[in-house]
Amino acid sequence: MATTTIGSATAIVGMGRALGQRDDPDGPKTPLQLGAIAARRAMAAAGITRAEVGALFTGRTPQSYMVLQYNQALLNELKIGPTFNTEVTAHGGGALGTLQLAALALHAGVIDYALCVTNEASGLWMDQVGSNAAWEGDLQFEAPYGPSTPSIYAQFACRYMHETGTTPEMCAHVSVENRHWALQHPYAAMRHKGPITIEDVLASRMIASPLRMLDCAVWYPGGIATAIVLTRADIARGGRHAEATWLAGFGQCSTHEWVGERMGSWGFAPLEDGPNLVRTGTALAAKQAYAMSGLSAHDMHIAQSSAPFSFANLMILEELGFCPFGEGGRFAADGGIAFDGGLPFNTMGGYLSFGQVAQGLYNLQEVVDQIHGRAEGRQVPGVEAGIVHGHGGPMACHSVVILTREPTR
Amino acid sequence: MSFAPQKVDWSRGVPLRAGDWFIGLYQPSPETVGFWDAVQHGELVLKYCPACDKCFHPKRIVCTDCGSADLAWRTASGRGHVYSYSEVHRAPSGDFAGSTPYTVGIVALEEGVHLFTRLIAEPEPIAIDAPVTVDFRVLELGQLLPVFVVGAA
Predict the structure, then answer these.
(1) Where is the ChsH2 C-terminal OB-fold domain (chain B) (predicted)?
(2) What is the DSSP string of B14-58?
(3) Span A307-357, pLDDT tens digits
(4) Does A270 sit behind a cis peptide bond, omega within 30 degrees of 0 on the bond before it?
(5) How far is B153 from chain A (nearest CA, A)?
(6) Containing H/E element for B96?
(7) How much is the pLDDT for A127?
(8) Angle between the A168-182 and A149-164 helix axes, to the nearest 10 degrees?
(9) Looking at residue A128, what is its pLDDT?
(10) Quick one: average pLDDT of B40-67?
């Protein structure tokens, strides 16, 4: 594979974050405010000047800050003049895709530093239940039928459970374990709700069959921005930067726009055998990332997914290589992702219990923190490598990133 | 500076309709207007590539296989089976709240095309692989739409 020289060719040398809450004493902040604050913190952590920012990459324009040229709004605030500047708009999967673009530009030698910023504050500024369906369904051929966002994902769930024998009880393990992790996180949306049991999940009210309330992601009731600074290996090793987290591998795969149209797609991976609702682009993205890094799923000490429903996390666990296809449910039911003794999975609490802000790099931030021993209250001992999955709906766009404490090549 | 959080309504008070804030996208577009015209006459049509003798989703602009843009409309049999489905208990907006629970799903037509649709569970219950037949009904937004009734015609 032509991509093998790029594994561990780049590293994260600075990270900044900003969290906005409804009850902030100076009022709620916009995504632009949070993004600008996080970006300056990342630049400060990396110790680079404005003039040194060679590239600015963002995910898609924040849903709660729709302007025609979002990158210009951000770079105008930061007063930087990047020579490579663009949004990466693979739905929510574009957030992690910014790292891919940064690695390519750095590896090619056209820039020395890339600044990746993702930020969203939909929990502060939007009616997410009312508006999100417009982001997840075809406005002409699906929305007039009244699909809620969960009912669109439920099309995948219905087939997945039908074809693999996965049960609602197996799926519920994801909800229970995610909640367990969220209870350890100071800012998790569901922290105050306390632990839940399999029975609680199965007894929660039906939202869109087979998905019950506790099978679904919660909207994060605030805003989150994460910014990172990446550079090339030679610079990262040069002694200027206090910390490096290595981008050992990455991959991305997008398959469709809407769920109905997904079933009219064939002739390319992962739909080479025809349309289906049980395979995603994650397996292909992960395969590339593992190949780049020289590592396998067995080497991952921690894993994060932005899959927004319980069953979808099982699909992603399979495609990241932690269990065979169709076995995600049995893997989870047998303790595979148990808080005590299983794979540390969604250690912030996942989208189901930490919450989601529609897009972001906060799952990536968690792996960086875990690798450097900063995950207060939920630190997994000895994390050398972690894998992050970024999802763009509905199950359409998938990004995978592998981070390591030491370069793997 | 301090002020109370505001609840911003994207649709600015207009009931949720597909695309009220994305003007144009919810309207029939040049490549789909033939589909919606046919619906007005109680007819279900699909895109068709004469060269490949293959039907496609009504949105297709070019043939997936040969790449030709010379696609025609072809009347579908209106028969197929349930591929996937979900019973909606929490509606996406007030427009649909009075109808819950209702079922949205994907049907596989005899022509090999899949359509997202509303499934009507009468007389038979909804299940994967259950036979369906097209019907045309005015749904909650006041739009005449093809729906699929479970049970062989």
Answers:
(1) 73-137
(2) SPP-TTTTSTTTTSPPTTTHHHHHHHHTT--EEEEETTTTEEE-T
(3) 999 999 999 999 999 999 999 999 999 999 999 999 999 999 999 999 998
(4) yes
(5) 22
(6) helix B94-97
(7) 74
(8) 120
(9) 73
(10) 97
Q: How open is the CA angle A232-A237-A240, to the nearest 5 degrees?
A: 95
Q: Which fold has domain A4-125+221-236?
A: Peroxisomal Thiolase; Chain A, domain 1 (3.40.47)
In the predicted model, what is the mean pLDDT of chain A? 94
Structure confidence at residue A358 (pLDDT): 76
User: Cβ of A158 and B84 within 8 Å?
Assistant: yes
Helix residue ranges per DSSP H, A246-395: 259-262, 282-293, 310-319, 328-333, 362-371
Phi, psi dihedrals of residue A57, rounded to the nearest 5°: -120, 135
Tokens of B46: 């699909």
> Which parts of A158-305 are beta strand (E)?
206-208, 211-212, 222-232, 245-254, 302-305
CB A179 within 8 A of CB A195: yes
ipTM reported for the complex, 2 dp: 0.94
The answer to whether the beta carbons of residues A71 and A39 sit under 8 Å apart is no
* Separation CA A174–CA A171 (nearest Å): 6
B89 with A205: Cβ contact below 8 A? yes
Q: Which residues of B touch A26 (CB under 8 A)?
A: 1-2
Percent of chain A with pLDDT strictly greater than 90: 85
Please tell me whether residue A168 adopts helix, strand or coil conformation: helix
Report domain extents, chain A. 4-125+221-236
Task: Check A264 against B56: CB less than 8 A apart.
Answer: yes
In Å, how far from its chain's centre is CA A74? 21
Judged against a pLDDT cut of 60, whether residue B23 lies above it is answered with: no
